[in-house]
Design goal:
The complex is a heterodimer of chains A (117) and B (148).
Chain A: H1 2-26, E1 31-34, E2 40-44, E3 52-55, H2 63-90, H3 96-101
Antiparallel strand pairs in A: 1-2, 2-3
Chain B: H1 2-20, E1 24-27, E2 33-37, E3 43-48, H2 50-53, H3 57-87, H4 89-99, H5 103-106
Antiparallel strand pairs in B: 1-2, 2-3
Helix pairs in contact in B: 3-4
The chains are: A mainly alpha (117), B mainly alpha (148).
Chain lengths: 117, 148
């Protein structure tokens, strides 16, 4: 069991180094999405919590329920974008099937509201 | 032997199902925002107190961002706890050696306190709990705040 763990740790380290070198070249991987009117903007990270959630002053007029729903909607879009970008970046160094198995889905590029990279 | 393997397979599948559906709910220390999040940072539910909106757009963004981070960390920690229950602390510590420390080990006092006005004393920082020396200690369970 210890050998298996050490082998797994070594493999993770190797992949981590390859990924790290790749990301150093490509820059941090994030996804960004905004409401059509700019009320909510979310910068998401793949597989983690959003790095930044920003709301405009006008968004406060949506009320707590409306604003909460909009934040959730935009955050989901931003994270999908981040996952897609991570998938596109890492599929050169990691088997895409393993990425999908890890939950890093490659979504379709969408160009509806606020998609920016 | 085949029956034992079958049991292990079922237990593993059960653990995967539980981890896949796992979320944690956390309320911000200011009580104005509550978030339910998955270990992957997905926001499953978000509740904003009406009074939070009176604090301005910047405060809303900051509080929601912090609460989502806290809820995600809590969900990751619950995942570690469930894994330790199912596989034993030894295996959970092995996983930490590969995937990195659990949030309970790697974060403490994770909310950045708001800047205090000049006349007000800065908020007291909580001391980090001593790290368990003995691997047999239940390091994964000794912080009740993760078990909400």
């Amino acid at each position: 069991m210890d050998d298996d763990v050490q082998r797994a740790a070594r493999k993770v380290r190797d992949v981590e180094q390859a990924v790290s070198e790749h990301v150093t070249r490509s820059g941090p991987i994030t996804g960004r999405a905004s409401s059509p009117d700019g009320a909510v903007t979310v910068v998401a990270t793949p597989g983690g919590p959003p790095r930044e959630i920003a709301v405009s002053a006008a968004a406060l007029r949506m009320g707590p329920h409306g604003l909460a729903a909009e934040i959730m909607r935009v955050a989901e879009k931003a994270q999908r974008s981040a996952n897609t970008r991570l998938h596109q970046t890492l599929e050169r160094v990691v088997d895409p099937r393993e990425l999908t198995a890890l939950g890093v889905e490659r979504g379709q590029d969408e160009d509806d509201f606020g998609w920016r990279r | 032997m085949a029956a034992v393997n079958e049991e292990r397979l079922q237990a593993t599948e059960q653990l995967q199902r539980e981890l896949g559906a796992l979320t944690a709910t956390v309320e911000h220390p200011n009580s104005m925002c509550t978030v339910t999040a998955s270990p992957k940072g997905e926001i499953k539910a978000l509740h904003l107190h009406p009074a939070l909106l009176n604090q301005g757009a910047r405060a809303v963004g900051q509080v929601v961002t912090e609460t989502v981070r806290l809820a995600t960390n809590a969900a990751v920690q619950v995942s570690f706890n469930k894994m330790a229950l199912a596989l034993g602390d030894g295996m959970a510590i092995d996983v930490e050696s590969i995937a990195g420390d659990s949030p309970f080990r790697s974060t403490w006092n994770p909310v950045v306190p708001p800047e205090a006005p000049a006349e007000q004393a800065p908020p007291e920082r909580r001391q980090r709990a001593p790290r368990a020396e003995d691997a047999d200690d239940d390091a994964f369970f000794d912080n009740p705040s993760w078990l909400r």
